[in-house]
Amino acid sequence: MGDRRAERHQATVDEIVEAAWRLARTSGLAAFSLRELAGEVGMRPQSLYSYFESKHAIYDAMYAQGCRQFVEGQASWTHSGDAVTDLQAIGRFFVDFCTQDPVRYQLMFQRTIPGFEPSEGSFAISVESLDSLQAHLVSLGIDDPAALDLFTALTTGIADQQISNDPGGDRWVRLIDDAVEMFWNHVTSRAAATTQPAEETRE
Predict the structure, then answer these.
(1) What's the fold here for domain 1-52?
(2) What is the pTM of this model?
(3) Which of 186, 2, 180 is CA-nearest to residue 89?
(4) Rg (CA), the chain
(5) Contact of 91 with 155, CB cutoff 8 Å
(6) Residue ranges of the domains in the chain?
(7) Residues near 31 by beta carbon (within 8 Å), at least 6 away in sequence
(8) What are the average pLDDT values for consecutive 10-residue runs of the chain, which has 203 residues?
C-alpha cells in the first residue's frame, strides 16, 4: 500500500512538472502562476502545496530534470580519438541541447527567476556534468581550469546568440566548429609557450 501511494505521489509530481514546462514555454518562465498550474493538472491551487512547498521548489524540480537530461546526453558521447573532432562534437551537443528548448536553457544557464537558486541536490547534478567535461579536457591534455571556463563561455555564447538573434535558424550554430578549432589552437599554443622555457633551461 505504501509503495502504491508513493508511486501515485511521484506520478502527480511528474505531471505537475511537465505542466509547468508547458506553461513556461507558452507564457514565459517567470510568468505562469500557481493558479494556472493547478488548473492545468486539475487541482485546487492550495493542493499544489501537498507536492511542492513553493513555486521555487517547482523550478528546482524543473532544473533538476533539465540537468538529468543533459547528463543522459553526455553519456551518449563517443570519442574518435581526435581532440578537435571530439571537442567540436561536444560543442555541437551543448549548443543543440540549449537551442532545442530555449526555456530550459534560460532556467539552467541564465538567472531569469528573481531569487531562485537550485537546491544542493539539484545543483550537484549540474556539477556532475561539468566535472565530466573537465575530465575529458584533462584527458586531452588541457588541465588549466581557465580553459574549461573559456570553453563553456564560448559554447554558451554561441547558444545565446543563436537563441536571441536567429531562433530556429543556424547562423551561429554554423560557427561551432570554427570556434572550437580556435579554442584548441589557443589553449595548445599557450600550453606550449609555458613549457618551452623549462625545456630550454634543461638544455
Answers:
(1) Arc Repressor Mutant, subunit A (1.10.10)
(2) 0.89
(3) 180
(4) 21
(5) yes
(6) 1-52, 55-196
(7) 24
(8) 84 97 95 94 94 96 97 86 91 95 96 93 94 88 90 96 95 97 92 61 49
